[in-house]
Amino acid sequence: MLRTQKRGMGYIAVVVDDYDRAIEYYTDKLGFTLVEDTPQPGKRWVVVTPNPLSDCHILLARASNERQKDFIGDQCGGRVFLFLQTDDFWRDYNAMKEKGVHFCEEPRQEEYGTVVVFEDIYGNRWDLYQNN
Prior knowledge:
Elements: E1 11-16, H1 19-29, E2 33-40, E3 43-49, E4 57-62, H2 66-69, E5 80-85, H3 89-98, E6 102-103, E7 108-110, E8 113-119, E9 125-131
Parallel strand pairs: 1-4, 5-9
Antiparallel strand pairs: 2-3, 3-4, 6-8, 7-8, 8-9
Protein name: VOC domain-containing protein
InterPro entries: Glyas_Bleomycin-R_OHBP_Dase, Glyas_Fos-R_dOase_dom, VOC_core
Domain VOC: 8-131
């Protein structure tokens, strides 16, 4: 008998300095949905997503020690860390720009689609992109 498995990314942790500040940025500036905010001993389980129907979410993880604080905003050594795919590049680009999201460059056309690099509130670099 052939068994099939469904595997995928469930959560990606982004280290933040403050839960409420991060929630505000991701929901107000990027248009994400707050999926969960559950208190736990000494921390909170805070989950946001660009699409509630997606299986992949971002866990906003508050730094709990100095070593973790050092990685806030630099989780990928200055490279693009996360990739936000959209079905309407210009709609999302213009909405984010209007809300004060910092873009590192002008949008550009690549062979795979339209893309622009932006930084989140902490300096993590993202691609906003739409495939052709």
